[in-house]
Structures are given as C-alpha cells and as structure tokens.
Design goal:
single chain; mainly beta; four-stranded antiparallel beta sheet; 10% helix
Length: 171
C-alpha cells in the first residue's frame, strides 16, 4: 500500500487482521509462493522482501534493483523469484539464499511485470517500451553445467565457486 505496509484482511468481516511493516516506501505488489507458506513483496524502496505467511514474519530483505521495484513473483517450484523495476530490468533470485542469479536486460523503459510460465521454463516481461519479451529460463543445474563448460569442464575450486555463486547443494 501507499503507506509502506502490507495489510492482511479478514475476507468475511473486511477488517484488518495484521499490519506488516518492513518497507519504507510504497509497496507495489505481493505474490504468494506456490506452497502458500511465503509471499514476496516489491516496493519503491528498491527492495523485495520475503515474508512467512502464517505469522507475517519478515524472513529476508533483498536489495533488488537500482530503482523502484514494481513487481515480484515466485516460480512454479518456489525456488526462484523474478522481480521487475523502473531500472529497465528484471532479475531472477534464489528464493532461499536471496542471491542474484540473472539480470534480464532487453527493455528500453521500466519493466512493469515479470512472471514465470506455468512449467517454469520461461519468464515473460512487459515494459513501458510497449514490448513483451519471453525469456528462456534454464534451471540451476543447467546453469552450473554451462559455467563448467566455460572452465573446460574442470572441477571448479572453492574460490571460483564462491566467486561465481555456484556453491549449490550436492555440487
């Protein structure tokens, strides 16, 4: 809302049940994770925040963009969040670690919305430049394999893994 809060409402009584505070500028969107356990909010304060749904506890703040964040949504498997901004980009985040995985540059004006396809293989962005772009979105295992190929399929050192944020479980 414009007062920088997120309000939980009782649908029957139309009364506010809880007011969540955490953003310091207007909140532009809220989107539930597929399992309903979390939701992500996007704000003019340039952040996205992840909240636990059952008690409204703020779990993570991500300094997401260099300008206002207009929209954020979860992937169908809940592993990723995509955000869009006035900075003309969309960004993909690891929803558990809060790390940036990809920046989608291709629009000339603000990106108003970004969503995953139902199968999670694509991201669609819509912009004030009057274009819609459909982006191919590989999963992290595929990204890791692509990165290994850049290093001639050799095993990466721990330092390289940290440098390129490739320290995934089981790798």
């Amino acid at each position: 809302s414009a007062d920088s809060t997120i309000r939980i409402w009782d649908a029957k009584s139309y009364q506010t049940v809880k007011v969540l505070r955490g953003h310091n500028k207007p909140v532009n969107s809220v989107f539930f994770s597929p399992d309903g356990n979390y939701f992500v909010s996007a704000s003019d304060d340039k952040t996205i925040k992840i909240w636990r749904a059952y008690d409204g506890r703020k779990m993570r703040t991500i300094d997401a963009h260099s300008s206002e964040v207009l929209y954020a949504s979860y992937s169908p498997n809940g592993k990723y969040i995509v955000s869009s901004s006035w900075d003309n980009s969309a960004r993909v985040w690891d929803s558990n670690k809060g790390i940036l995985l990809a920046t989608l540059n291709g629009h000339d004006r603000s990106v108003n919305s970004a969503n995953f396809s139902p199968d999670g293989n694509y991201i669609v962005t819509a912009s004030n430049d009057e274009n819609i772009i459909i982006w191919d979105f590989p999963d992290l295992d595929e990204l890791l394999e692509r990165t290994k190929k850049l290093f001639n399929n050799r095993t990466l050192t721990q330092e390289e893994r940290q440098l390129y944020d490739l320290d995934f479980e089981g790798q």
